[in-house]
Amino acid sequence: MDAHLYLWINAVLYIGFGLWCFLKPTATSNFVGFSLLHASGKSEFLAVYAGLELGMGIFFLACTQAESLLYAGVLFGTCMYSGINLFRFYSIFRFGMVARSTMVLVALEVIFCVWGWVLLSGMASPF
Description:
By secondary structure, the chain is mainly alpha-helical. Helix content is about 85%, strand content about 0%. Helix 1 (about 5-25) packs across helix 2 (about 25-30).
């Protein structure tokens, strides 16, 4: 499995999702199970879901442009997905099963987490 492919797919997904959150915040918040009740909540959703995810996508994209950044990009993705999975599964255990749309995200998060660990195990660490 190629690190470039891992980073490109992440770049496309996060740039796409960030733009979707920006352009259609109500639709995307409903998809992930949020209610945007107040201006503060809407601002937070746009900042974190649109802004942060767009920024992450750009970072993944930047990492595809230089061999020296491949390890950093895969490490970042693996750490991110590991943390997401830890709290995703804890939340399912604590609050119960999630909606089908969230299960799609769970599947992707698990795949990218495992893929990242596999990639890291075969890459030479610059540290």
